[in-house]
Design brief:
Chain lengths: 136, 457
């Protein structure tokens, strides 16, 4: 049988937890908000302030600022960064496998071998494509 | 499953064969792999095999096989017609073809999914290569723009879809579509979480197929993307998304029909009007195709609004006919090869190259739904199936077909005109390659005699 429902039904949300359950979360958010706003508003007003040309400069950690930060960066940096993330994430998958090595038996080993195989294929592709060569 | 494995290996092999820098070798190997996949699917049709049947995530049933076969045919045609463009960048030829095959892999996963996880995975595998391919012309800012636009809006839609799946899981406690159906049948009271989830999933789907009001990405992306990719998006991506769409809604959400039917009816009407009315004013050919594809999504949505036993087959047939016409027109667009992609550049095509002109006219008439072409039978099936249940909707659809005929015929007139004597628009040369002629030949045969498919079933 087809049940009819309408958009009005959406208004009476039948959530599994009661509204009271969320009061601690609301309180916590209020505290967080109050802390952030409070520090931002009161800290500059309460503390003593001394300003000078040297102190207001952008880099006051010992090295003179040189040039603009917004210059074009070689796209190779991004390619290498993305590849790094990709292969780094692969390593993360090994950890749960290593923990469950005994329980997963041969089937688990096969799955991991296939996984590594695909990643290796990708790595060979990257190498052959010359994405890791810095100078061309 | 076997077909999926063959397809995946084909894509991998294609990528690696590319290092040999022999485009013809790459092409023949990839097409061989695609034909092998099709053969595996046909074997599956006659002998449902038990290969890896313990895995329940995908199921190659008759529905999935029909949709997959069409997707494979379209991919082969697009690789053929775009080969000239792929070949021009020798170091990327294999990447282009490989990415298209990976995307096809996603489409096949999408039409054969059995649980929401595989569905999501299929959608991602389908979309991500297309994000890349849309930006394949790296020196063209329009192409990069379309890639970025598609990626950002597409990622957003995927987020909404995942959110919807999470809500649905919260309401039903399962990812499997048959278990979701079971749950809705047995539940005494359906949690409103399920309705919210359904609406989220619906919006993500409407985005993927480019239905109003989630269509704004499609003209820009279709316009900027390289022509073969535009054809792929219109033919294969739409096929995959629609296949998954109708499967999900007829199985998992069949009990909630009364809830989503009114929304979808309204959206179908809106989509038809937006597509057709916007198409009238277009001067660029690919933008015209984009709006025409929006209009065709509107007609296709009618199969979902009026669910009958024939809906899936009607939808399949309609997308089949639509794909052939679109691929033919995209191929013609590549032959005309106007830098600014003006419709005006088609002027004189009928005289300069009668065969190409003929195919273009047939394809436009097929899109308009003129008998005895395949597009007519597609529309006829959908409208005839729906008219008893929802005559008002069909009246609106017929009105829209009328609007559609106007701009399709206008383009036909441009093609049949004499080449311009004024030197304002320089005449293109209309260079064709044998592969493109093969594609055009297959498309025109399919459009002329595709109606015969109806006698089979």
């Amino acid at each position: 049988m087809l049940r009819s429902a309408n958009f009005v039904g959406l208004l009476y949300l039948n959530l599994m937890s009661d509204v009271q359950d969320y009061i601690p979360i609301v309180l916590q958010s209020l505290v967080v908000l109050a802390f952030v706003v409070g520090t931002l508003v009161f800290a500059p007003k309460l503390g003593p302030k001394l300003s000078s040309a040297k102190k207001d400069a952008n880099w006051e950690c010992g090295i003179e600022a040189d040039g603009n930060a917004r210059f074009p960066i070689s796209v190779r940096y991004f390619v290498i960064a993305i590849l790094f993330v990709l292969f780094d994430v692969e390593v993360i998958f090994f950890y749960p496998y290593a923990v469950n090595f005994q329980a997963l038996q041969l089937e688990g080993l096969m799955a991991v071998l296939i996984f590594v195989g695909f990643f290796l294929t990708g790595f060979i592709y990257v190498l052959k494509k010359g994405a890791l060569e810095w100078e061309k | 499953m076997l077909a999926l494995i063959i397809l995946f290996l084909t894509a991998l092999v294609t990528l690696f064969v590319g290092f040999a820098k022999k485009p013809l070798l790459t092409l023949s190997l990839s097409v061989l792999g695609l034909l092998g996949t099709a053969a595996a699917l046909i074997c599956q049709w006659y002998h449902p095999s038990d290969f890896l049947s313990s895995y329940e995530g995908v199921n190659m049933d008759g529905f999935a096989i029909l949709f997959s076969l069409v997707a494979i045919i379209f991919t082969i045609l697009i690789i053929f017609s775009g080969f000239e463009q792929f070949k021009s960048r020798l170091d990327h030829t294999a990447d282009y073809i490989g990415l298209l095959i990976f995307s096809l892999f996603g489409a096949i996963v999408m039409v054969s999914f059995q649980d929401m996880f595989m569905f999501f995975l299929g959608l991602e595998i389908l979309s991500i290569p297309i994000y890349v391919m849309a930006g394949a012309r790296k020196d063209d800012p329009l192409s990069s723009e379309s890639s970025l636009k598609y990626f950002i809006t597409g990622a957003f839609a995927t987020g909404i879809l995942l959110f919807g799946i999470a809500w649905l899981y919260g309401a039903t406690g399962t990812f499997k579509i048959y278990e979701i159906q079971q749950f809705f049948m047995e539940a005494e009271q359906i949690s409103s979480l399920a309705y919210v989830g359904l609406l989220f999933i619906l919006s993500a789907f409407l985005f993927k197929i480019g239905a109003a009001p989630f269509h704004f990405w499609s003209p820009d992306v279709y316009d900027g993307a390289p022509a073969p990719v535009t054809g792929f998006m219109a033919a294969v991506v739409k096929l995959g998304a629609f296949g998954a769409f109708i499967k999900l809604f007829t199985i998992a959400f069949s009990e909630l029909y009364d809830f989503w039917m009114p929304a979808l009816t309204f959206l179908a009407i809106l989509t038809m009007f937006v597509g057709n009315l916007s198409a009238i004013r277009q001067v660029r050919f690919k933008r015209l195709l984009a709006y025409s594809s929006i209009a065709h999504v509107g007609y296709s949505l009618i199969t979902m609004v009026v669910l009958t036993n024939n809906s899936a087959l009607n939808l399949w047939y309609y997308l089949f006919s639509y794909g052939f016409a679109t691929i033919a027109l995209i191929t013609v667009q590549m032959i005309v090869n106007d830098r600014e992609d003006r419709i005006e550049a088609f002027k004189g095509l009928g005289r300069a190259n009668p065969f190409v002109g003929f195919v273009a006219v047939v394809a436009l008439l097929a899109l308009a739904g003129v008998p005895p072409l395949m597009g007519f039978f597609g529309k006829f099936l959908i409208f005839a199936d729906a008219i008893s249940q929802n005559p008002a909707l069909i009246a609106v659809a017929l009105l829209n077909s009328g609007i559609g005929i106007f701009y399709y015929l206008r383009t036909v007139i441009v093609i049949l005109q004499k080449p311009g004597v004024d030197n304002e628009i320089e005449q293109s040369e209309f260079k064709t390659t044998p592969l493109q002629l093969i594609v055009l030949g297959i498309c025109v045969l399919a459009m002329l005699f595709g109606g015969g498919l109806l006698m089979v079933h």
